[in-house]
Amino acid sequence: MSLAEKIRQVEENIAAAAREVGRDPSEITLVAATKVQTSETIREAIAAGVKVCGENRVQEMTAHLADNAYEGAKLHFIGHLQTNKVKFVVGRVDLIESVGSQRLLEAIEQQAAKVGVVQDILLEVNVGGEESKSGVSVAELPALAARAAELPHVRLRGLMAIPPVAQNEGENRPFFAQMRQLFVDIKEKMDDNKSVIDCLSMGMSRDYEDAVREGATLVRVGTALFGPRPPMGQPG
Ligand SMILES: *Cc1c(COP(=O)(O)O)cnc(C)c1O
Prior knowledge:
- By secondary structure, the chain is α/β, with parallel strands linked by helices.
- It has one domain: TIM Barrel.
- Helix content is 37%, strand content 17%.
- It is built from eight helices and eight strands, in the order H-E-H-E-H-E-E-H-E-H-E-H-E-H-E-H.
- It has an eight-stranded parallel β-sheet with strand order 7-6-5-4-3-2-1-8.
- Strand 2, helix 3 and strand 3 form a beta-alpha-beta unit.
- The relative contact order is 0.16.
- The chain binds pyridoxal-5'-phosphate.
- The site of pyridoxal-5'-phosphate (PLP) has 13 residues, from strand 8 and helix 8.
- Pyridoxal-5'-phosphate binds next to strand 8 and helix 8.
- It holds the Pfam family Ala_racemase_N.
């Protein structure tokens, strides 16, 4: 299958999963996870209909930006972000999906104030409670969300999660359902003039249909579009 055909296939799967549970497919946006792809492939994906690219390495993203590779699409930062690299990301992407600590949140606020922008963000939740993963714990989420709401140069748009790697199909549905509940709770508390809580980012190549069934508005898909990647190297 060509890249264009794979994109269409994934979009059809998203739409089918949405209809299964009575959702309007237009509520869900495919985020193409473009890590390790070339600028040429990114352009090909956008020409074939990809509306949002998700990057998780600062260095690659900076090179693609210099290349104008994302022209015609929105850009989300979805990877682990070190506070010393915030300056390369704030104001350059439409949404930072992976804000998982107060330290990072405050660094984003500072940089956004400095360059005079209001940066849209999602809070990343470590929904599986895994030691190895970044993201705020479920217990600490309300306090972090409350802090985000206080900051003038940050606009909280919702939540993101990367659940544990599932061994069997369907295994992550309870985590997705839990995220959906956290999203509804935050929305009830936080929706105001400043914060429009409308993004729930969850689901990757192996489980995006389940994530859609449980309420995802953004699914981040790499392998199902671009094929397998070489093993992960150094984080960006
Ligand atoms: C790479 C990546 C994805 C996509 O993963 P696939 O399994 O290839 O679909 C999604 N989210 C994040 C944060 C990623 O880094």
